Amino acid sequence: MLSNWQKQFRTCGELFAIFTKIGPSTFGGGYAMIPIIEREIVGKRQWLDEAELADMLSLAGSAPGGVAVNSAVFVGYRKAGIAGAIASVIGITLPALMIVIVLSLVYLLYGSNPKLIAALKGIHGAVIALILMAAYRMAKASVIDKTTAAVAIVTVLVQVIFKINPIYIIVIGLFAGIAIIKGKELIGHRTSMDQLQSRPSAQELFAPEYYI
Predict the structure, then answer these.
(1) How does DSSP classify residue 189?
(2) Contacts (Cβ under 8 Å, ≥6 apart) of 26
(3) pLDDT-based confidence at residue 162 (cuts at 50, 70, 90)
(4) Based on CB atoms within 10 Å of each CB, which residue in 21, 56, 95, 193 is the most buried?
(5) Looking at residue 212, what is its pLDDT?
(6) What percentage of the chain has pLDDT greater than the value 70?
């Protein structure tokens, strides 16, 4: 029978191994790793469901720091507290750090090689595909009615046309969401958000699990 600290140590080892596997996908940017983290965390292990994943990505994208690291902290802390968060962050950053060091050396030596240039162009296309898939997954979980669809469309148009700082868009979206829901409640309109009342609260999302 394993003690609590042994279970937590084993969980931290599993978190480190998982995020070490996910880590190389962050070479294309934090959002490029979303399909991989969805497969490992949601699909294989069911540590989060799709709705919780969307919430996590919203928080990770809004908070300071990279999306990949923030997501690792979220999952690691939920599974094994602070120790799990540390193990997850080390796991997701170590492969990317090693890859960047190696690629930097290779680029310094062979940066003008036509084959290397062609390979990097191919990587660009693959990264775009991963980001588009991540956007589709997030939209599937987040756009639940006409109101959220309109907000998403307006946000994209504002960002493309006016190139506003994303921080302002996030803050405006926060207050816009509150205002829309409260406005609908005042006029007695049942919102589609009502169907999501069974989802865990933010406090529950961050509650660490120790497999007691």
Answers:
(1) P
(2) 32, 33, 66, 68, 92, 96
(3) confident
(4) 56
(5) 37
(6) 84
Total Cβ atoms within 10 A of residue 52: 19
- CA–CA gap between residue 72 and residue 87 (Å, rounded): 9
- For 77, residues 6+ apart whose C-beta sits below 8 A from its C-beta are 84, 85, 206, 208
- The Cα-based distances of 147 to 92, 151, 161 in angstroms read 36, 6, 21
Per-residue pLDDT at 35:
80
What radius of gyration, in Å, describes the C-alpha atoms of the chain? 20
- For residue 86, CA distances in Å to 3, 20, 26, 100, 201 come to 21, 13, 18, 21, 24
Predicted local confidence at residue 82, as pLDDT: 92
Closest CA to 87 of 60, 69, 62: 69
CA distance 59 to 66: 11
Tell me what the mean pLDDT of segment 50-68 comes to. Answer: 80
H helices then E strands: how many in the chain? Answer: 8, 0
Q: How far is CA 135 from the centre of its chain?
A: 11
Q: What is the mean pLDDT of residues 9-32?
A: 81
State how far the Cα of 86 lies from the Cα of 208, in Å rounded to an integer. 13
pTM summary value: 0.60
CB atoms < 10 A from the CB of 18, how many? Answer: 25
Cα torsion at 34, 36, 41, 44 (round to 10°)? Answer: 150
**Both structure tokens of 112:** 């003008």
